[in-house]
Structures are given as C-alpha cells and as structure tokens.
C-alpha cells in the first residue's frame, strides 16, 4: 500500500476481504445524525443493482466524537426482500476507520483510493455523509456508466434549490466550463463514480499536502479527469437535499480552498485550456424529473453589508487587481440601496478572470488574495438572490446559463492576459 499508514486492524480487514469489484467510500466528520441513512441506501443499491459483484463500503472518518463510525458499523437494511428482485449472492463488507493526513475531505478520499487500489476495484463511488435525499438508485447511476459504459468519471447532476450551491453557480461551474469546454453542471457536487483506473491515476499525483486535501478535492478530481482525457459523463440523481449552508454565513474557508484549488489547476493545465473555445454537453445518464426542494434561507442584507465593508477596507487591493475602470464600477455598486443592487455578469466575469491572472502573477499570497475576493463574491451572490427571488427553478437556471456564456465569450480576455 503506498504511503498511507492504516492501523493494524484496518490492514487485517483489507487482507481478509482480499479483492472487490466495487468500493463505495463515505467520508465523514460528526455525521452520526445522517450517515445511517446514507449507509442503508448504499447497501440497498449494491444489493439491488449489483447482486453478483463483490462490494465494500469504506467509511473514512475525520475523528468524529459523536459516534459516526459506530453508526456505520451497526447500520444494516432490515428487510432486503422489500427492495430486491434478485437474491444477493455475496455479502457487503464494511470498513470504518479514522484516516491520517491533513484534516479534510481530500485526505479521507485518498484513503478510499488506496483501499480501492489495494482491493483491485473496477468501479468506485464516493457519496457525502450528510445526504438526506440519497436513494439506492444513486449507486446504480454512478456505477453502471463505469462498469458497463466504459466511462472513467461520472459527476452528479441534481436539482438543487436555486439558492443552494452558490460557489458552484457563480464561480466553479462557469469557470470550469469555459476553461475545459465540458458542461459538467456539478463539478464539486460531492458524489461521484469513477473507475479503478482513474483512482490509481489520482494516487500518482503529489497533491496531498495542498488544499486538495481539504475542500479542493472535488474540483481537483473533476478537472484532473477532464484535462487528462478520461471519459467523463454525468448522471441525474434527483434532488440534492443535505445540510445546506447560508451563503452569507462564514464560507470564507471553503471559498478559499475551492477557488485556490481551481486556480492552481489552471497553472498545471494551461496548455490544455488556453486553446479551447466554447463548450460541449457531457453525456448524461438518468431520467430527469421534477422534484420538490427544501427552502434555503439567506440573509442578503448581511451579505451586502459585508460587500460594502470590503469596499472600505480592500479598495487598494481591488484597484490593483481589477484596474481603474472595473474598480470604479464596483465603487458605484457600493452606493446602491439593497433593493437596487445588481452586479452585472460581464463585470463579475472580469473579476474572476482578473483574480485568476493575479493568482498566476503571484501578486500576493494566495490566501490573502482569495480572501479579498470574498466580499465581491457575497455581493454577486446577493445580487443573484435578489433578482431570482420570485423566479422558478428553471428561470434561475437560465440566468446561470447566461453567466456561463459570458465566461465563454470573454475567454480571450483571460488568455491574452495570461503571460
């Protein structure tokens, strides 16, 4: 096993299992309240759709103190006969252990990749431990394209509340799509399927002491798969209902780790993304249907106050990064009342491209740079929420599509300035 040090009992469990066709990883940290449902859904999905495949559930835990790993070990589906058409031939093994390395989701994933490699898995799935909407069908939709369709990477496609996933909608999806030309709608969705071959490829990369080890793992997995020519698809999973966060609350750390990982990937794959223009749809599996979604409550007044505070405290940095013209436009936004506030999508596109260029040119430390982006992100997000307040979900999605096209149409600006 590479350089991850598992405890003796984990080695023994892996040795007893010997090999597996499918590995399902569930990273966790204090998720005792929700992880039992996730484990039951995974067990049911494996039993129902892959009855003759040897499968292992791996819970890679960040040192929970609420009994999360006990819940995993003690959870089982009470009555398989209620959901199965076929008798399951092979039992499903479970391994639950605390991972080592930098605390974060990426370190948890690395342990899962290691176990998948050791067991010789053909297909792997990772799912979040705070999911309340996962069903057994998610396992089918994330595994089958790999086992039967020859795909190496399957991203999730879900319906989310229009105010959920704001970092994805305003930065990561439009930017990644414009850079690499692939319309993977949820590049940091958190629930992915991938081949054993790709898990092995991930392990060859020396990124485990960087922000990839924390929140950056999702965008790193998606980008690494696309940029290295692996066959990528997405599967419609229904609704994503989880413990959503108010985008006005403290998302600064998550924003920093996701954006810095995205910008860092731009450095490594510049030769891949600079010639690409426009975008193409990703192959999509699953039957898309309408689902009810939980309301996500947001405090736009707080977000706009933080934007205006940023204007007072960060004006020199913003002027240096954005240049005089766009900085004056940002200043004008600061004079608007809450009800009139509207952040133009062209301006937002240039803000993100200017920050990517400043990161590339090492104008200041990455942490200092990207944290100075937070008030601008909150202003853009508040603007979207105010404009989409009375929109249906499909109308809000159409606004995100307009933003994506703006990123694609302005890509020359980024490429020309990237020296």
UniProtKB/TrEMBL annotation:
**Which residue windows are transmembrane per the record?**
none
Arranged from A to Z, the UniProt key words for this protein are:
Glycosyltransferase, Transferase
Enumerate the spans annotated as Mannosylglycerate synthase GT domain: 103-261
Provide any one GO MF term from the record. glycosyltransferase activity
InterPro entries to which the protein is assigned, alphabetical: Glycosyltransferase_2, MGS_GT, Nucleotide-diphossugar_trans
State the superkingdom. Answer: Bacteria
Q: So what family is this one in?
A: Belongs to the glycosyltransferase 2 family.
> What name is this protein filed under?
Glycosyl transferase
Which species?
Sulfurimicrobium lacus
Organism ancestry: Bacteria, Pseudomonadati, Pseudomonadota, Betaproteobacteria, Nitrosomonadales
């Amino acid at each position: 096993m590479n350089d991850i040090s598992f405890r003796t009992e984990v080695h023994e469990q892996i040795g007893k299992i010997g090999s597996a066709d499918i590995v399902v990883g569930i990273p966790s940290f204090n998720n005792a309240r929700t992880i039992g449902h996730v484990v039951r859904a995974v067990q049911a999905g494996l039993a129902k759709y892959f009855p003759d495949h040897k499968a292992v559930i791996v819970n890679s835990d960040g040192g929970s103190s609420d009994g999360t790993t006990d819940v995993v070990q003690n959870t089982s589906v009470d009555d398989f006969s209620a959901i199965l058409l076929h008798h399951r031939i092979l039992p499903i093994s479970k391994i639950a252990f605390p991972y080592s390395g930098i605390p974060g989701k990426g370190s948890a994933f690395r342990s899962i990749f290691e176990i998948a490699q050791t067991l010789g898995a053909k297909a792997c799935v990772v799912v979040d431990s705070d999911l309340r909407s996962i069903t057994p069908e998610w396992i089918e939709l994330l595994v089958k394209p790999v086992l039967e369709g020859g795909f190496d990477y399957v991203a999730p496609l879900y319906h989310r509340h229009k105010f959920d996933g704001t970092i994805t909608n305003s930065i990561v999806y439009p930017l990644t799509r414009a850079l690499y030309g692939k319309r993977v709608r949820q590049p940091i969705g958190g629930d992915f399927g991938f081949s054993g071959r790709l898990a092995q490829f991930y392990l060859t990369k020396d990124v485990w002491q960087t922000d990839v080890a924390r929140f950056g793992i999702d965008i790193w997995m998606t980008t690494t798969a696309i940029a290295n020519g692996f066959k990528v698809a997405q599967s419609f999973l229904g609704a994503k209902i989880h413990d959503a966060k108010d985008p006005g609350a403290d998302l600064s750390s998550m924003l920093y780790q996701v954006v810095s990982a995205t910008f860092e990937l731009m450095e490594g794959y510049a030769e891949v993304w600079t010639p690409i223009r426009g975008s193409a749809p990703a192959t999509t599996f699953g039957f898309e249907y309408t689902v009810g979604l939980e309301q996500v409550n947001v405090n736009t007044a707080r977000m706009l106050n933080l934007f205006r505070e940023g204007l007072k405290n960060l004006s020199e940095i913003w002027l240096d990064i954005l240049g005089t013209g766009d900085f004056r436009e940002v200043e004008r936004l600061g004079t608007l009342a809450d009800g009139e506030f509207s952040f133009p999508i062209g301006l937002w596109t240039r803000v993100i491209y200017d920050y990517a260029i400043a990161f590339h040119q090492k104008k200041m430390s990455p942490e200092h740079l990207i944290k100075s982006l937070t008030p601008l992100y909150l202003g853009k997000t508040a603007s979207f929420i105010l404009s989409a307040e009375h929109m249906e979900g499909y109308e809000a999605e159409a606004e995100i599509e307009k933003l994506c096209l703006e990123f694609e149409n302005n890509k020359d600006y980024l490429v020309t300035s990237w020296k």
